[in-house]
Amino acid sequence: MMKKIAIYGKGGIGKSTTVSNISAAYSEENKKVMVVGCDPKADTTRTLCGRRLPTILDTIKNNKNPDVNNVLFKGFGNVLCVESGGPEPGVGCAGRGVIVAMDLIEKKGVFTDNNLDIVIYDVLGDVVCGGFAVPLREEFADEVFIVTSGEYMSLYAANNISKGIKKLKGNLSGIICNCKGIDNETAIVRDFAEMIGSSVIGIIPRDETVQKSEIEAKTVIEKYPNSNQSEEYRKLAKNILNNSSSGVPEPLNDDEFEELFLNLSNCI
After folding, report:
1. Would you give the end-to-end CA distance of the chain in angstroms?
2. What gap in Å lies between CA 140 and CA 172, rounded to an integer?
3. Active-site residue identified among 39, 43, 122, 126
4. Catalytic: 15?
5. Is 50 within 8 Å of 217 (Cβ atoms)?
6. Among the options 3, 4, 10, 218, which is catalytic?
7. What separation in angstroms does the CA of 11 have from each of 41, 44, 122, 204, 208?
8. Which of 52, 150, 178, 257 is geometrically suited to a Cys-Cys bond with 252, CB 3.0 to 4.6 A?
9. Is 126 annotated as catalytic?
């Protein structure tokens, strides 16, 4: 059975880095993987393909019915990659790109024709827009994982994402702690996860190999396959694949969140 995963989180928290590296890890295990970039920045698949890909929104400006090869590309480890794209800054609705992309790749039979084992959606999580809920609302994804650090705004976004998951009756399957190097960070994230009825499924340490790899438009797994950081991504990928625990989260209201974060911060 195809595993369908959506990974949400605040912009800049490391969703795309996480998605691209766990996808590369799955490819090492001969899994057939597809990555769908649902961020208007269209940078999810850059390190898998070594370049920025043409987006679906840009492609259909000139061709309303493009061939699947115009929007679907193979990256490292034969990972299939597609980017929804978005409008120019300040013009239109960013979530529209997600809606159009999902509709197009489904009509083109991408999900059914490629015998996929895993589909991963990289979704922007700090913009309140219906388009970004498409992977959940239209049941393209069965599980959601949230990437966060121990920082206030990252956790605030994670809590808001949990509210959306609950509203849509989706399944939150775990929290990924992408460390930024603050004091007591993993404890902060674990406490937050417990408070919303979830758990931490993986911890990715801060490491300079990530930036060095991204400069060359490569994943850490490709650039530094024998590094400790690559092993952490492989471990996370395995945890996600084997995960069988999920449920509707119980997000905090704003007052509860402020109190929680204040208490957590006082422990640092």
Report:
1. 43
2. 14
3. 126
4. yes
5. yes
6. 10
7. 10, 12, 11, 17, 20
8. 257
9. yes
* Helices within 66-195 (DSSP H only): 95-107, 110-113, 134-137, 152-167, 185-195
169 is catalytic: no
Tens of pLDDT, residue by residue over 136-169, are 766 678 899 999 999 999 999 999 999 988 888 8
Q: Which of 4, 15, 218, 223 is catalytic?
A: 15
Q: What is the token pair recorded at 75?
A: 């990256």
Angle between helices 254-266 and 152-167 (to 10 degrees): 140
Residue 37 CB neighbours (<10 A): 32
What's the CA gap between 221 and 175, in Å, rounded? 22
Collapsing DSSP states into helix, strand and coil, what is residue 82?
Answer: strand
The reply to whether the predicted model has a pTM over 0.90 is yes
Query: How far, rounded to the nearest angstrom, does the alpha carbon of residue 208 sit from its chain's CA centroid?
Result: 21
- How far is it, in rounded angstroms, from Cα 38 to Cα 138? 14
Cβ neighbours around 33 below 10 Å, total: 26
d(CA 144, CA 6): 5
Residues 78-134: tens digit of each pLDDT:
999 999 887 666 665 666 667 788 888 888 988 888 899 999 999 877 655 555 666
